[in-house]
Amino acid sequence: MEHASFGPEGAHIRWTGTAGGGDGGPPRVYVHGLGATSAVHHAHIAAVPALAGRRSLFVDLPGHGISDRPAGFGYTLEDHADALASALEAAGARGAELIGHSMGGSVAIVLAVRRPELVSRLVLTEANLDPDPPLSAGSSRIATYTEDAFVRGGGFEETLERIGPVWRATMRLADPTALHRSACALVRGTRPTMRKMLLGLEIPRTFLVGGHGEELTGREELTAAGVTVRTVPGAGHNVMFDNAPGFAAAVAGQP
After folding, report:
1. Where does the signal sequence lie (predicted)?
2. How many CA atoms lie within 13 A of 119 on its CB side?
3. Domain total in the chain
4. Is this prediction's pTM over 0.70?
């Protein structure tokens, strides 16, 4: 396990990783979604033979997994991106390929815009691109609570009960304050929006959609801007669990 300082004094963002076999390509940095952890969602993908030759980092964003959860941190998408930048710099992982799931994809987009020297490619899985997602989204449900009601009034516990065993397994490891502030940041979005930032980037970009999910809004616009949009069959929001071979092939850039 490695770490780098971020935000308030004494706070550290942490990650685990593999050295890889030295295939000559840039490191791959896996970034989890809201209430998740990176190794749980991605370590089995990085072990696939087509990917195992590359150095891999599994970074837990502030307030999640093994990273610190300072009470005075804002947990905005920009805050998360800056903390992730600290991790990449400390790890010597400039020019990395970022594989971001859901909120992690949004953070990856923000990082690619703010610190372009750190990112050479984006693979975004069911990433949040627009503010004000529907109430069916996990972030929107969490954001309906006030911070006090979520952290101290039972909202966190109600959410853990509602979301089911898969998401609950990692969300229960997240700090409730960090979780609520991160969810509100997703609902609020960025200015310009994550979608507009993604459209304006010139690095290779792949956007993955689970075949069992809703139709991707603005798919034609993304394609016209050079974003490779792929539907992974047999998968819902957690593409890496539902169709691991299809997900790994997309990360590896295979047809």
Report:
1. none
2. 31
3. 1
4. yes
